[in-house]
Structure formats: structure tokens, C-alpha cells
Amino acid sequence: MSLKPMWPLPLKAVQLAGALLSVALAVALEQPARGTDLGQLAQLRDEKTQRASSCNPDWRNGSRDSVVVQPGETFTFADLTGPGEIRHIWLTIAAKERGYSRLLSLRAYWDDEKEPSVLAPLGDFFAVGHGVDAPVDSLVVKNSTDGRGRNSYWPMPFAKRARLQLTNEGTTEIIFFYIVDWALLPSLPANTAYFHASYRQEFPATSGTNYLIADIAGRGHYVGTLLSCRQIGAGWWGEGDDFFFIDGAKEPQIRGTGTEDYFGQSWGLTPDRGLYFGAPIADGNMPYGRSSAYRWHIPDPVCFEQSLKVEIEHKGEVTNPNGTIRSGFEERPDELSSVAFWYQTEPHKPLSKLPSAYLRLDCDYRKTVQAESIIKSLKATKGALTAEKRGGLSNWQQVVWRPTGAGEELSFPIKIDSKGRLRLTLLMSVGPDYGSFNVSLGNVRLAQRIDLYNPFYGNRDLPFDLAGMAEGTYTVRIRNAGKNPMSSGYNLGFDGYVSEAQ
């Protein structure tokens, strides 16, 4: 049997093949959403390229390309006159407060609207929850430099005016560097929709009802979800399905098969950073473990004519007091937060109000006892203790202990003066040269072999619920238990601790 050549192909087939190749190349090169057809690069554009930035006004001689935003201050970092479109936002923050990316809130206003179309904590808008820094490598959000260089490529068109604002809701000043790249256009296409993003949280998730991610009125299309979870108990938390109710439907027209399935994974969440989905944070299924996962509906937007509700079940494994699994599919009281991303015509339904800043955090870091302030009380059986600086820590500092191997111990005293239930949170760091550790309080083992290795430097909290502890002074012992085979060292980064009555 001989095969006949298929050339010449029909013109439509050639055009389709070319379009598919163009999109594939764009994805491979990580082009932003608006410019995925490389063939458009050769076409002249009737637009004017613009930029707003923190560049020093004395641009010939000055190098202080930043602004200081004080506690309680709202800073407008872009006020643009249209018609136009924001194509790229880059920013980085120097902050002395742990959890700073949830203490800073981002707002965007289009044209003459009084209510914002974007309202979210800064870090969550850039696809990472819990107030921590973490790398992201997706099509529309790219966080580099251990997650501290944040980039957004969401196209944000506006007809008359665009205002971007950053509010510092923390207790210390921040140093803010930013770039907003945009284009001044002759006009917007008649079918242009406006970009929106809205944050929600339930700490804990409300019993008896699904967790609500988005409640939208108007015409548009849904383009993305960030979902973050802080587990209250052990076990797999994400067995719940996602549901999309389009245009007032009583039953969801789009129904999922599990939380990890919605985020492009299976059999749980593992760290991942992809073009359309990823999990920048995935601590594992331990008590107080944290997860943060994104899903961009760029090739598959969810379109709606009148309204859209997006929900997800908060169900998973529930354990008995002895640690055995009671149920694999039962409602869980985990702490959930999210950002919904979509485009729609205006006017829009008012967005959910942000909870007060410190209620958005897993821990009240204002109560931190900083490690460098008690460095004289820290005792190491072996290995150096040094105070070192790093961004995103309390007062920009932590104490780094450099043990030489397993079995070596760091200890310090802690006073418990609260009756009843108490939560002790050790504020640790993760990094490529960090080890694994056992943690004890007095004679009670709190945690075994906590692995603090991570390919990038970041923060990790270790919360422990202490019930029935008598008032008095105890010794916290952190014993090196070896290291992950991928780690280049046994180090421990200790930012301090928080002791809170529950």
C-alpha cells in the first residue's frame, strides 16, 4: 500500500496549522496573554508606549528609585489617562514585617468608578497566599528572585482613566519599587471588557455551605482562581469539587472532580509552577500545613451573560482522636482564602470588603519575640549563631544556626503565663542549605523531622497547640535530625516566636 502526499493542503488547513503553531511558539516563549500570535510582531501599531515608575525624578544622577509608604498610607502609583491598556506591572517591596504581602492591599479603579474593580492583598493578587514570598512561573504572573520580584501580565484596558493604589495596613514603613508598562490607544474595541480581581476568606470555612470564590453580576468571562488553605487538622483537605453556576442556574453547569483536579494535579497537591496552573506552596497534609494553588482559564474562559457564582466544597479526610481516618469525604473547618479573576462589562457588583489586615494572616506577627533580641539566651551544643538580614522577616533579621550534623541542638527558655489553651508558633525560614529538625518543649515532643529544605529562601511557621501546660518557664529544644539529600547544609533560620492564648 502506498501513501499519497497530501500537498497541496487546502488554504483553510494551512491557516489553521499556522495559527496553532503560532500559539504553541508563544506558549513556549512565555509570551503575555495579549501577544500570543508571533505574527503580530511584524505589524505596525497605532499606539504610544508609556510607563509609570518609581524612577528617581533626578534620573540623570539619582539612584533612589523607590518611594516610602508609611503605615496607614495609600499611595497612588499609577494615574493614567486613556484610552489605554496596562500590559505589565512589576514591583518589589522592602519590608520589615513578616507577612507583609498580606498587610499590603492593591486596588485598581477604571474610568470614573468609585468602587474598585481590583481589591486584594498584594501577595494573593500575585498568586501566592499566606503573606509569604514564593516563585511563580505562569503565563500571566511571574514571581522571580525567591518570589520577591512580582510581575503581572494581565491585560487591563480602560477607556478614560486607570488608577492603581497600594495601601500599607501594617505597622512599619515599606520601601516600594514599581514599574507599570502601558499603551495609549486611539480607542478601545466595542466589545472590550474590564479586568477584575476580588479577595475572599473564611477563617474557618463556614459549616454547612460551600466556600464561595466569586459572586459576579454582569456579562463577561472568568479567567482565574487562586485558592489558599491553612489546614486545621491532619489529612488531605482538598477532596471537594468546584462548581460554576452560570446565569442564575440552580444547579452548576460545570462540576469538578476534586480540588487538586481543578488545579491540574492528582492525588493531592505538590509544589508546581506551570503556565496555566501551579501550586507555589504545598506544605503537605499536616496540621497547620499551608497550600496555595492557581488555575488560569486563559484557553478555557468561563463565559456568562448575566451572572456567575463559583464555589468549591471544603471536604476531605477527617481523623479520629487516635489518628485513624474517620471519613475520606467530610466537611472540614480549614482556613480558606481566594482571589477570583475575571473580565466583565461595567458597572460591576461591589467587591467583597477586605478583612482587617492582621485577621488576614495565619499568625499575629505583632506579638513576635524576635530571635535577635534573645540571641544571648540561645544555646547551641555546636555550630555558630549569627544575626543575619533578609527581606520579609521581622525587622529584616533572623538568627542563623549552622550545626555541623545530626544530633546537635539549639535551645532557649520560654515563659508560659497564660492559663488554658495556648498556641506557640516558631517562625522559621526555609532554604536550599537548611536541615531537618525535631522540636520539643520540656519533655514533650512537638514535632519530628520537620524538613526546612526548599530550593528558594522563604518563610515557614511551625504552630503548636499547647493544652494543659502549667504556667512556668520551659525549654524549647530544636534538635538537628539530618538533612534532605538535596540540601547543601544543616542550617536553621530562626526569626522568633509568637505565643498566643486561644
Q: What is the total number of structural domains?
A: 2
CATH fold-level name of the largest domain = Jelly Rolls
Instruction: State the end-to-end CA separation.
Output: 79 Å
Count, helices: 4
Task: Please summarize the sheet with the most strands.
Answer: 11 strands, mixed
CATH superfamily of the largest domain: Protein of unknown function DUF2961
Give the radius of gyration. Answer: 25 Å
Describe the 3D structure.
The chain has four helices and 36 strands. The chain is mainly beta. The chain folds into two domains: about 325 residues, Sandwich (Jelly Rolls), CATH 2.60.120; about 140 residues, Sandwich (Jelly Rolls). Strands 3, 5, 6, 11, 13, 15, 18, 19, 20, 21 and 25 form an eleven-stranded mixed β-sheet that branches. Strands 1, 2, 4, 7, 8, 9, 10 and 12 form an eight-stranded antiparallel β-sheet that branches. Strands 26, 28, 29, 31, 34 and 36 form a six-stranded antiparallel β-sheet that branches. A hairpin with a 3-residue loop joins strand 7 and strand 8. The protein starts with 10 loop residues before the first helix and ends with a strand.
